[in-house]
Amino acid sequence: MNSAGSQTTGTSDPTYNLISVAYHALQGAENYEQYAEDAQEEGDQELIDFFREAQQQSQRCADQAKQLLASRLQGGQTGMAAGQAAGQSSVADAMGHAGSKPQTGG
Questions:
Q1: Torsion of CA 38, 96, 72, 2, to 10 degrees
Q2: How many degrees, rounded to 5, is the angle at CA 2 between CA 26 and CA 19?
Q3: Which end of the chain is more exposed for a tag (fewer CB within 10 A), N or C?
Q4: 42 within 8 A of 34, measured Cβ to Cβ
Q5: Is residue 85 scored above 60 in pLDDT?
């Protein structure tokens, strides 16, 4: 989003971007649940597993976006050091760990 976007929404670009990532990741997780249910009706375990893993990855991404947003809204650190200081992995790491259990709560 460019500076014109900030004027349009009244929200800074990084804040808007984090909200957008969280929203779209959660929307994707909801879609993947439906896809997994469809695969279950077909009896396709490989697709069920694939869509469940995609759902977990999206949930982890949304959780990380929410944590980053919260730290910034509370006036915390910004930039790469903020995520590392809080023990958070990068979005790429969260999206790349197959078989990891999803985080609960949030």
A1: -80
A2: 20
A3: C
A4: no
A5: no
Give the DSSP letter string of 35-92: HHHHHHHHT-HHHHHHHHHHHHHHHHHHHHHHHHHHHHHTT---SHHHHHHTTPPPHH
What confidence tens digit (pLDDT) does each residue in 12-62 have? 899 999 999 999 999 999 999 999 999 999 999 999 999 999 999 999 999
Helix (H, G, I), strand (E, B) or coil at 3: helix
Question: What b/e string do you get for 25-45 counting C-beta neighbours within 10 Å, with b at 16 or more?
Answer: bbebbeebeebbeebeeeeee
pLDDT at residue 98 is higher than 80: no
CA dihedral of 13, 17, 20, 25, whole degrees rounded to 10:
180
Phi, psi at 104, each rounded to 5°? -110, 160
Q: Report the percentage of the chain scoring pLDDT > 70.
A: 63
